[in-house]
Specification:
The complex is a heterodimer of chains A (about 425) and B (about 190). Chain A has about 425 residues and is α+β, with helices and mostly antiparallel strands. Chain A has helices spanning about 1-10, 20-45, 60-90, 100-130, 140-165, 185-195, 200-210, 215-225, 230-250, 285-290, 290-295, 315-320, 345-355, 380-385, and strands at about 300-305, 310-315, 325-330, 335-345, 360-365, 375-380, 390-395, 395-400, 410, 425-430. Chain A has 14 helices and 10 strands. Residues about 1-35 and about 185-190 of chain B have low confidence and may be disordered. The chains are: A alpha+beta (about 425), B mainly alpha (about 190).
Chain lengths: ~425, ~190
């Protein structure tokens, strides 16, 4: 077993599998994880704010940027994580597999780190495709795994800190050819020295003091040994270039769904700018929300309730109030965004009409009876913002049913799920 | 026999490179593996990081059990285990075998060309990893026409053609450059 593990590590030895490379790719991946975690938390608290929380309403494209970044960094994690795993792969064959209690904990934490990272970016990506082939709820698991991963990242940095500091700067690259596993690094130096001489496998066997394993394993190892080894510097450069190009490709060919300059090369983004009713993509449809009948009913009214007083507005009455034009993006948690022109009544004007206290937050209730976002809250900073509208028109036309006809919310810097469609009732939350 | 063989490997290698002072920087545990050369400050920072990380991890576990129904948790564990298996037992060996195959097939080709072809295959595979699920998911009739609106199969085909053309072009350029003997030998040998 020990022999097999050593042979595996030996066969896997490669110029790119060294601690310097692990540090270089690792810090990029770590940065991507931190960006995902930070933007993810921001998105989470926008949707489920704690009582004391207030949010910035400017710049009005703030959420478009934070959530677009969340998805872009998440997609960049695919090449970066695979590269990192490629670099440290020989560490899997460390022998003995466990060298004590702490070593066991460390290896267990790395296993969990690897598995949870792969699951996290996979379910995140598939969520943007609205494809859910797993047996657990996405939002809750994605949120919990975020904490788990950031904890494991911090532990990992703590454990590897000497390696990280040693190989942080290029200056130490001279010793960067050391292999990943410090405990067995010495073996690889010998291995490299030996395999530097082509066709000296007998010599290698003599040095090891034994014959190679026989049978199929032996033949496989001999086959691997007789393969030409890649040149060091070229391999490292090629590896880094490949990781860079792959990251640029996956990001560049998908980010057009939120980042307009890349719209033309949006080949693989799950959304496309301008594709949808009135030029705006749709997330939840009227059919999914089962609101078509109620929304198209001519008896529809919007009820505004403040401090016990209630008033209902027909669509005609809303249209008769002063109208405001705003240019605001719809920005979805799934990472896409679409700039649009909205016309409607300022929420602030409606609140003032009902003499609401400017310090009050509001609850927005949709015609939709089920669904996690059929009732949402809006903090006072959005209620008082002059850009926050009860929108009646979109891009110069009457709001499409799929965009929330008869009336929907549109506010700066909020996720799409909080831009309540098919509004039915707006009520002040009395404190 | 095995033990003595191993001993000799360690012995000669230690003489060769003298990296023994770095033991403890690899997969070793934080407290036990630290040698005298590690400063106290480093040890404090490492303990603080590990401690803080454990707290965050514990909070994550709490959030998981708090938000997700108990009957769903095994599903999460199963996916994590499957992801490890998928990578370590399937994906990584395939990549290893492909690397071997490519280097053997390219015995007579310059190292630069092998690196370019290898890079092309890796870039194409990673983009496909992102793109193929769109093709699959589109078959399940997305909730509305604005989800996955593009022809992803066609786009992926175009991408591979462009990538192949770029790979061939770059390789040809590299070969020409080497033939011209510009003096720069790209195919350096192992530095040892």
């Amino acid at each position: 077993m020990r022999r097999l593990m050593y042979e595996a590590q030996r066969a896997l030895a490669s110029p790119v599998r060294n601690p310097r490379m692990a540090t270089v790719i690792g810090r990029l991946l770590g940065a991507a994880f931190l960006i995902c975690f930070g933007t993810g938390l921001y998105s989470h608290f926008l949707q489920e704010p704690l009582d004391w929380m207030r949010f910035a309403t400017r710049p009005e494209f703030l959420y478009q940027v934070t959530q677009g970044t969340h998805i872009i960094a998440g997609i960049a994690c695919f090449p970066l994580l695979l590269a990192k795993l490629h670099i440290v792969f020989p560490g899997l064959f460390a022998y003995p597999p466990v060298r004590g209690f702490w070593n066991f904990l460390e290896r267990a934490s790395i296993a969990l780190f690897v598995g949870a990272s792969l699951v996290q970016i996979t379910i995140g990506l598939l969520n943007t495709y609205q494809w859910y082939p797993w047996p657990f709820p996405f939002r809750q698991v994605h949120f919990a795994l975020g904490w788990v991963l950031i904890g494991l990242l911090v532990i990992h940095i703590g454990v590897k800190l000497p390696t990280i500091t040693r190989y942080w700067n290029k200056a130490s690259k001279a010793s960067g050819d050391d292999d990943i596993d410090g405990g067995h690094r010495a073996d690889h130096h010998l291995v490299d020295a030996v395999s530097g001489d082509r066709g000296e496998n007998d010599e290698a066997a003599r040095l090891r003091g034994t014959t190679r394993p026989g049978g199929l394993t032996g033949r496989a190892l001999h086959y691997i040994d007789s393969t030409p080894r890649a040149a060091s510097r070229l391999s490292r450069r090629g590896f880094l270039t490949t990781v860079g190009v792959a990251t640029t490709a996956v990001v560049g060919l998908t980010a057009g769904q939120t980042f307009t300059p890349l719209n033309a090369v949006n080949l693989f983004g799950p959304r496309k700018k301008g594709v949808g009713q009135q030029g705006v993509p749709v997330n939840r449809t009227s059919k999914q929300a089962k609101v078509a009948d109620a929304a198209m009913n001519s008896a529809w009214t919007l009820t505004v309730a403040v401090a016990g007083a209630e008033r209902s507005f027909t669509r005609a009455e809303l249209l008769a109030l002063p109208q405001t034009d705003v240019t605001l993006p719809i920005a979805c948690v799934e990472g896409w965004s679409q700039m649009a022109f909205w016309r409607g009544v300022r929420l602030r004007d409606l609140a003032d009409l009902m003499s609401a206290d400017p310090e009050t937050s509001f609850r927005l209730i949709s015609l939709e009876e089920r669904g996690s976002f059929s009732k949402t809250q809006m903090g006072r900073e959005y209620v008082r913002d002059p850009l926050t509208l009860v929108a009646l028109e979109l891009n110069g036309e009457t709001l499409d049913l799929e965009h929330g006809y008869p009336a929907r919310m549109i506010a700066p810097g909020r996720p799409g799920v909080l831009q309540t469609k098919w509004l039915s009732r707006i009520e002040a939350i009395e404190s | 026999m095995t033990a003595s063989a191993n001993g000799s490997r360690h012995g000669s290698a230690g003489v060769n490179v003298g990296v023994t002072e770095t033991v403890g920087t690899g997969l070793n545990p934080p407290p036990a593996g630290i040698t005298a050369s590690t400063s106290r400050r480093m040890r404090t920072i490492r303990w603080a990081l590990v401690g803080g990380g454990v707290l965050l991890l514990a909070w994550g576990a709490f959030v998981m059990f708090d938000l997700v129904r108990l009957t769903r948790i095994p599903g999460v564990a199963l996916w994590i285990a499957a992801a490890i298996l998928l990578h370590d037992a399937i994906l990584a060996p395939i990549v290893f075998a492909l690397g071997i195959g490519l280097r053997r097939a390219g015995r007579r080709v310059s190292g630069t060309v092998i690196a370019i072809v290898q890079g092309g295959i890796v870039v194409g595979s990673i983009v496909s990893l992102i793109a193929v699920p769109t093709i699959v998911a589109k078959n399940f009739a997305p909730a509305n026409a604005t989800v996955l609106p593009l022809n992803y199969g066609l786009n992926l085909g175009i991408f591979w053609i462009v990538l192949a053309a770029l790979t061939v072009g770059l390789s040809a350029w590299a070969v020409m450059r080497e033939r011209r003997g510009s003096g720069v030998r790209l195919q350096d040998d192992s530095e040892r």
